[in-house]
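Predict both folds.
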Amino acid sequence: MRAIQVSRFGGPEVLVPVEVPAPVPAPGELLVEVAAAGVNYADTHRTEGSYRGGTDLPFIPGVEVVGRTPDGRRMLAPIFAGGGYAEAAVVPAARAVDVPDDVEDGEALALLVQGLTAWHVLRNSARLAPGESVVVNAAAGGVGSLAVQLAKYFGAGRVIAAASTPEKQALAVRLGADVAVDSALDGYAGRVRAANDGRPVDVVLDAIGGVTLLAGMDVLGGFGRLVSYGNAAREGRPLVDLEVLAESNKVVAGFWLRPAMEYPRGYQEPLTELLELTATGKIRPLVGGNYPLGDARRAHEDLLARSTTGKLVLRP
C-alpha cells in the first residue's frame, strides 16, 4: 500500500512516499481503509523529533483517520502510535466511533484532536462559567475556530478572537466571536482589554507559547485562567513566577489531550457530543484544505507557515 514514511528527523522534506505492506490488526484492533487522515501540529513535532515522549524511526505519521472497516462501518479513531498517512491503518477498537452520515470526513477529523482539545480546555481546564470573557489566540486555526464556537455554545459572555490577519479575524467573527483583534505582540494587551470594554478577561486559551503566553497572562483578571495547549512558536517554555500569579490569584494550566482521553468521560462522551453538535449544525468545523497523500510535505509546509485556516486533510 502507499504511505508516507519518515526515516530521519527534520522538516517537511523528510515526508517521503513509499510502498509498504498493509498493516494486520492485532486482537483489539480494527483495520480501516483510510478515506482521510488529519494533519496536526503534533505531526510536525513528531517529524522533527521534538514530540513529547519521543518517536522511534522509521515511522508513518498521522494520529487520526476516518474510513471504512471491512464490514462497512464508517469509523473515526485516533492512532497515537502513528500510521494514519496511508491507504490503510489499524486503530484501537475501543476508540473507534461511528460517524453520522451528516458529518463529512474533514469535519469528523477536525473534531477528534482539535475538537476534543477545545472541549476539554474550556470545560475542564478553564472551567468556563456562563457570562465569563474568553480570549482565543490563533482563533482561525483548527482548535481556535472550534473554541470560539464552543465558548459561545457553553455560555461565554464575551468571546475575543485574536488572529494574525484581517481575513482570519473576520472569519472568527463569522464563527461567533463578539470581536476580533490583531494577535501581534506589540500592543496585544491593550487591544484585548479594549475589546473587553477596558477590563481584564477571565480566560485565555493559548497554543502559541513563548512570549505570547506571557502576554496572555498580562490580560487576566483576578482568578483568571490561562490554558496553554501548544507551542506553535517553537520558543522555549517561559518560566512562570508564582508570586506574580498569587498577586492576582491567576492560574496557568497546561493541557495535553492524550492523557485526558484516559480520564473518566474524557473521550467517548465529549466526542459523541461534538459529532451531534456538528450533525445538527450547532457548530461548524472548518476544513482548511484537502491534499493528496503524496502532497503530505506541502500540507506540513502550509501548516507551519500558518497560511491555512481550519483542518488540513490528506486523502489517499
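Second protein follows, with its predicted C-alpha cells after the sequence.
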Amino acid sequence: MKMKAMSMTFNQKGDDDYFIRLLSYLRSQFKENIVEMVPYRKSVIWIKTDKNVYMLKGFHTNKRLRLQEAFTATLRKEGFLKTYLFVHPQLKEPIFFEGTYFGCLEYITPNKIPFSFQSQKNRQEGLELLEQFHQVTSSFEARYRTLIPKGVIIEKWRDRGKIFSSNISTLKYFINDKILMEMINWANWSLSGMEKNRSLFLNEPYCILHGDVAHHNFLRDSNGVLNLIDFDLISIGPASLDYLQYANRILPSLDWSFERLAQFSQYEELLNEKAFLYALAYPADIFREWNRLVREGSYRDHQKYNQVMDLTIGQFYSRKKFIDQLKLLTN
C-alpha cells in the first residue's frame, strides 16, 4: 500500500479516502516535502521526505503521546540505546488528524531477515535485551509510578478466563468439549496456585515492564543490532511478569519442553518458584486469541482461524505433557 506523489493504490478497502486525506493533511503541516507514504496500519505510517525517513505513530490522547516521548527519552538518557527516539521535524503545528495525535519517530531500517522466535540465537538475544531493559528501567521506575499503571496478572487472567468461558457456546463449534474443559481446568489450577504463592509477584524488585514481548516488538536493524520497540503497554511491576509472557511466546518453538526453557539463565531462579510454575500453566495465549476471534468474528478468516487452531489443538498434547510436568514439580 504505497503512495508516491498523488498516485496511490490501496490493499485495504475502505481506508482509501482516509489515507488520501491524511497525506494531504501531512503535506500541509510538514515543512519538508513528502515524496512517499506507506501506511502499515491506520495508526502506523511510514513517510519519506526529500530530507528524511520517519515513522508516524498515532495515539488516542495527547497525554499518551507525551508519555511515550518522555519514556523513550528517559530510556536513552539512562543508557538503553537499542530502541527508537521521537524526533521533531519542522511542523506548522502538532499533528492532530481526525481524533488521532501523531508522534514522529526516527526510522530504524529493518534487517532483510525478520526477527522471529524460531531460532535459539534469536530467543537468547531477545531475552538478553529484555533483561537489559529491566536493569535500566529499575533505576528510574519510581519516577513513573504516578504516570503508568501497576502491572497485575492474576486479576487480568481471571477476567480473560471469564470471557473465554462466556464464549463456550460459540467455542463448542470449533473445539472438542473434553479439550475445552481441560483448558479451563488448567486455568483454574494455575490461578489457584498463583493466589496461594503470590508473594513472588509482591516481593520481587520492581522495574518498568514492556508488557508485550511478541516477536514483532523486537526489531533487528540493517546493521544486525536488535532493538526493542513499542511501549504502549508499559506498566510497573516485577520483571517475572515479562519473563512469564516471553516464556509463553517461545515455548511453542521449544516444543513445550521444560528442560529447554530451563537452559536459559534468566529462568534459573524463577523455575524454582512455585508461583512462576503455576503461572506457566495458564493458557493465556489460547484464551487471548479465541476471545479476539469471537469478539471480531474473525474465525471466518481462514489464516487467523488456522493459526489459532494450531495453537489450541495442534499443540494440545505437547502442552498437556508440559503442564503435567509442572503439576509434579509443584507437589
